[in-house]
Design brief:
Helix content is 19%, strand content 27%. It is built from 5 helices and 12 strands. The protein has helices at 7-10, 94-98, 101-113, 137-144, 165-175; strands at 15-18, 41-44, 57-60, 67-71, 75-81, 86-92, 121-124, 134-136, 153-157, 160-163, 183-185, 207-213. Strand 9 and strand 10 (160-163) form a beta hairpin. The longest helix has 13 residues, at 101-113.
Length: 214
């Protein structure tokens, strides 16, 4: 496999994007940040970058700036608002979901670019699936402080259960105003599907996903 494409983003000729696999070469000039599972959004302008910022989401309205995010079992999310011509990436693991990285990104999209989430297209790429991701109940409780978890956490034994981060991410996008019809999924599991790096499967590497305005 190489880069995977999202159907709802492919319609835009003003956009380049891809969800990475284990063997996909990283694009030249890709802009990456120091990911720490925060809700910090970094705005990429047309000036040269200084020190690598700590952030877990990036937004830009500048052409030819390639925004990237590294993931293994966390979810990569790509977004595009064609009205304001703004593109972005989000790194959304359970800690990011608990820290409201998606909600903060959509609010930043609105406040900085006057871009409506209701007119934004979002694509959620490969990540660990609900049948492979066992976590402690405290993880679900942390997320539940931001977004109702409900059936996205299925208790298995004791204080352990299986967590569906994809469903939670979709709920957060919907809560931010993104229509369900504008959310696309590539529902591949990085742990049980071949061709991906997965920390739960023992890999220490990560694949990169990217988006750029042409």
């Amino acid at each position: 496999m190489n880069y995977l494409k999202a159907q709802n983003l492919q319609q835009f000729t003003s956009l380049e994007h891809g969800f990475g696999t284990a063997d996909a070469p990283w694009p030249d000039g890709i802009i990456l940040v120091s990911q720490r599972h925060t809700n910090t959004v970094f705005i990429v302008g047309d000036q040269p970058l200084g020190p690598v910022p700590v952030a877990d989401a990036l937004l830009t309205s500048v052409r030819h700036r390639i925004l990237g995010i590294k993931t293994a079992d966390c979810l990569p999310i790509l977004l595009y608002n064609p009205v304001s011509n703004v593109a972005g990436v989000i790194h959304a693991g359970w800690r990011g979901l608990a820290n409201a990285v998606i909600l903060n990104t959509m609010e930043t999209l609105r406040s900085v670019y006057a871009a409506a989430p209701e007119l934004t297209y979002c694509s959620i790429g490969p990540g660990i699936c609900k049948n492979c991701y066992e976590v402690g109940r405290e993880v679900a409780e942390r997320i539940n402080e931001v977004t109702p978890v409900g059936d996205a956490f299925r208790q298995t034994s004791g204080d352990k259960g299986m967590l569906d981060t994809r469903t939670i991410a979709q709920r957060q996008l919907s809560a931010a105003g993104v229509p369900l019809s504008s959310i696309f999924h590539i529902p591949l599991c990085t742990r049980c599907s071949p061709g991906f790096h997965s920390h739960r499967a023992g890999s220490q590497e990560r694949q990169v996903s990217y988006i750029a305005l042409r």
